[in-house]
Each structure stands twice: as structure tokens, then as C-alpha cells.
Amino acid sequence: MQSVNLWLILLPLLYYRIKKTLYFSSLENNCMAENNNSEKRKFLKFPWDYKESFMTAFTLLLCGFAVNYFSFPAVPVIPAFPYNLYFLICVLIYIFFSGLYFKSPFIKWLSSIPAAISAISVFTFLILLMGFIPQQREISGFISRTGLSHITQSWSFLIISFYLMLILGYAIIKRSYPLNIKNIRFFLNHAGLWIVIAAASMGSADMMVLEMQAETGKKTSVVYDQKGKFYKLPFEVELKTFEIDEYLPHRKKITSILKIYDDNEIYDAAISVNHPVKIHDWKFYLKSYDKNMGQWSVINIFKIVRDPWLPVVYAGIIMMLAGVLLLFWKTNKN
Amino acid sequence: MDLIQVFKYSSLIIFASWLTGLLLLLIKKENLFLKKIGIIFIISGILLLLAFIICYWLNIERPPFKTLGETRLWYSLFLSATGLTMFLRWKWNWIIFYCLLLSALFLLMNLLYPENFDKTLMPALQSIWFIPHVIVYILAYSFLGFSMLAALRGLIAFYRKKEIQEVTVIADTIVYIGFSFLTFGLLFGALWAKEAWGNYWTWDPKETWSFITWLVYLIYIHFRLSFKSKNISASLWLLLFAFIIIMICWFGVNYMPSAANSVHVY
């Protein structure tokens, strides 16, 4: 285990060192190549530009629609832990090492702005479709078969996102050298976004959203998911008190207090809207109460969420926030 | 006198003082005294708007960030105040003219569609994220509104074959600031949603459209980095298009067939 940790530290350093050496040798090559670069370039001949980039992105989109059409009604499923983690590690290692061949015209193109713009544009196009077409799975027909009625669960969305992540990854690798304030800002913004998208999409497979019905005077540990499947929590819960406090004429504060029977320990947990409480790995959100009974309701519904990838997503969000702060600072200085 | 009456009179006074101020600025550009008087008129209009918002806040006993009309009030305030600051800082006459016109337009919308002043604040909105989330978004929208005005200015100059280098630099700077606020708003929204509902992203129609807005400005930024001094008119058109997307995200979503069950419809 010790040696694995050591490798985790050494690998990026080694990588950085190799990149630095290759970077300078490529600079020399570029200077020589610059002189005979004047003739007009043929389509699909490297170096690739906007035409090829948009063609690639749209081809991928159409492939996504086609796969969706022929595999209907199956939807792509993101594998649960540990396979999603393995997948992410494989993708990272692949980008990391193929990034060393940044002199190859293909990798160069993948990390270029035209490739980035084409990928973002096609992705935007897909999300625009989502903005116009109502997203509900029940609709049948062509719209449903191509996945347009459930875009976030369609192959086209998955393929374009993956393409975007690949390009983003290569762009991050490309700018890992030299290390200056401009590149740090670039890294925080881009790597932060990469981490957020990767952890949120891969982590969705491990996220459990359950519900529980808690009553006064009745201990329970039974929870159920959206499909109606039942599970058992490792502790028992009982509704102790529930109150609707109208402390201002136009503001209500709804609080319910749960009594938790946890092994040999018994304690209270106060939960209100916007103030969830974490018990073990489970976060309790107050969802609803018996509206007919109002303040005297003896049954509360709780939403219970387990999201093991959350710290990773938050790490990405914090990186992005820091990167955006640097963006401000830069523009204010100019 | 009820709030709607107060708003009617104060917005008419604001219109009058802004109009007088602009006329004084335009009549004789060299006359410094007239210019000063004009600026004083504009400032007093903005201060009156601020006073109205404060009075409104005290009256409704909750932060006024909930309804569309309230967001429009804040938008007019921020737009006119930042416009004046930019005018004083860089001496561009056109920017004060355009932005006062735009904020007057948003005030006019509130005059034409007066809202019922609902005082309740649902529990989900009682969060420390509520005010920062909305303020940051309104700031973002006002800066991006500026970038649209700059783009309009640039396009007019472009088709008259005049110098546009300066205006594009201005547009870029403003987009960077606006985009930073936009990213903050988006991320704050995600953090808030996690605390309130347990999901940071649910593809609610408003979320989808604000994500589209973010993506379009992302395209603009990369487009400018790629072309630098080439294809400027295309990038300016892109800014106009992006502002239309903002408008859809802000008002238009409510009328979309895809937005039937949105938590953001207000």
C-alpha cells in the first residue's frame, strides 16, 4: 500500500518532467515547420480545423441517435461501484499517457479550441432540444425512439458528454506546462468542471434516493425507493414531535424532531426544510406531512439520500469557484 | 396610498429625471456645467429607484427576490447604476444612453404588468442561499445585458465600416465579468438545491435553460480566443443571440411546454 501511495505522488512529477523535455523539443520542431506551412490544406488532412471538428461532433451525435433508435427501449446504464470507479481510472490513465504524444496531430487536434468549440456547440444543441421538447419517458414514436424525450438518459447525450470530457481532458494536459498563474486559473476552471461532470455522472449510479414514512409512537427502519422496492436502515426512527411555527405572519417554519434508536444509543434529530440532517451515511430531508391534519399531523414523509460521490463533486465545485474568482481578478486588473 | 400607486408615481419621476439628464448630456457635449447637472438628474433617478426598493422591502417583510417583477426592479437598479459607473469611468456617452433605455424598459414592463404583492415566502426559499443566488444572477444578467449593448454598438459601427476594436475589447471584458457571476449563480443554485431537495441538479426547465445560457457564453469566450481579431461580426451576433437565450431563461421558460412542473416558475 505504501509503495502505491508513493507512485501516486511520483507519477505526476515524472509525467511533468517528461512533458517539459518533450515540450522544448517540440518548440524547436515547430520553428522549423513554420517555414513551409503556406500551401492550402486539403480537407481531412492534418492539422484539423473547424470543418473536421464539427463533422466529427455531428457524426458522433447522429451515431448516438442511431444507437438509441435501434436499441430502443433499452437505455444506457451507468455501472455501479466499483465498476464506475474502474472506468474513470482507466479513462484518466488513458488521457494521461496518450497526452504525452501531444506532438501527434490527432492529439493536438483533440486539445485544440476548434475541437472544444465543436463539442460545446453540439452539446449545447442537444441541451437546447431538451429545453424545447418536454422530457417525459412515456411518449412513444420517433421522438421517443431517438431518445429526444429523455435526452439525459440517451446514448447521444452519453456519447457527446464523453467526447466533451475527452477534449476537456486533453486541453487540461496540454496546459499543464508551464506552471504560471494563467495556467493555474485554466487548470482550476477546466479540471474543476471535469471532476464535477465525471463525479456527478458516474456517481449517479451509486446515489440512492429513498423515502420513509415516520409516525409518532411507532419505531420503524423500513424505507422504499421510487420503484416501491423496500430496504432496511441500520437504525430505527420514530417521529417525536412535529410543529408548524408561524413566527411571522407570512413565514412558516416547519420542523419535525425524530427520535433515533441507534444500537444502544438514543438521540433526537431536528429536521426542517433547507436543514437536512445526516445520520450515518443517510441524509434526511423533510418532504411532506399530512396536510389534512396540519400542525397535528402524526405522519411525516422523509426523503433519504445517500450520495457517496458528493465530496468529489464538491471538490470540483470548489475548484471552479476558485478558478472563477481568478477570472474576476484578471479582468478587473485589465 | 398602496404600493402600486407609489410605484406608478416614482417610476414616472424616474423616467422624467433620466430623460432630462440624457437630454442635458446630449445637447451640448462641450458644456461641462450642463453635463454635471445632467449627471445629477440621472443619479437622483437611480437613488429614487433604490429608495423605492428599500421602502418596498420594508413593507412586504421578506426579501424582495421572489417574483419576476421584483427581479426586474433589481435589474433596472443594477443596470442603471453600473452603466453610470462605466460612463463616469470611461466617458462613453453611448453606454449611459443605452443602459438607461434598457432599465426604463424593464421598469415600464413592471408598470404594464403590476403584480399582486404576495407576502408569503415558502419554506424552501427560506435559506441563506436565497439572496446570494438571486443577486449574483441579476448582476450576471446586467453585465451580460451590457455586453449585448456593446455588441449592438459594435455591429452598427461594423456595418458603417468604422473602427470596432475598442468596442470588442469592452465586450470581452464585460462578458468575462458577467460569465464569472453566471458561474457563481449556477454553482450556488446547485449547492442550495442539494440542501433543500437532496439533488444538486435535476434538469428542471429553468436549470436547463440557465445551463444553455452558460454554454452559449462559454462558446463565445472560446470563439474569441480562437479568432482574436478575425470574425468579429460573427462573435458580436453571437452575443445578441446569447442575450435572447437569457430572456428565454428569465421570462420565456414559463411559457414553454417543457416547463409544466418547474420549481422555478414564479
What does this structure look like?
Among the domains of chain A are: 45-174, no CATH class; 208-306, no CATH class. Helices cover 50% and strands 22% of the residues of chain A. Chain A has nine helices and eight strands. Chain A has an eight-stranded antiparallel β-sheet with strand order 5-4-3-2-1-8-7-6, with no helix packed on it. In chain A, a hairpin with a 2-residue loop joins strand 4 and strand 5 (265-272). In chain A, helix 5 (113-132) runs antiparallel to helix 7 (155-174) and helix 7 (155-174) runs antiparallel to helix 8 (181-203). The longest helix of chain A is centred in the N-terminal third of the chain and has 33 residues, at 2-34. The two termini of chain A are 49 Å apart. The mean pLDDT of chain A is 86. Chain B has 266 residues and is mainly alpha-helical. Chain B has a domain at 122-259: Four Helix Bundle (Hemerythrin (Met), subunit A), CATH 1.20.120. Chain B contains eight helices and no strands. In chain B, helix 2 runs antiparallel to helix 3, helix 3 (68-90) runs antiparallel to helix 4 and helix 6 (165-197) packs antiparallel against helix 7 (205-227). The chains are: A alpha+beta (334), B mainly alpha (266). The interface between A and B is large, with 49 and 46 residues.
A few lines on this structure:
The complex is a heterodimer of chains A (334) and B (266). Helix content of chain A is 50%, strand content 22%. Chain A is α+β, with helices and mostly antiparallel strands.
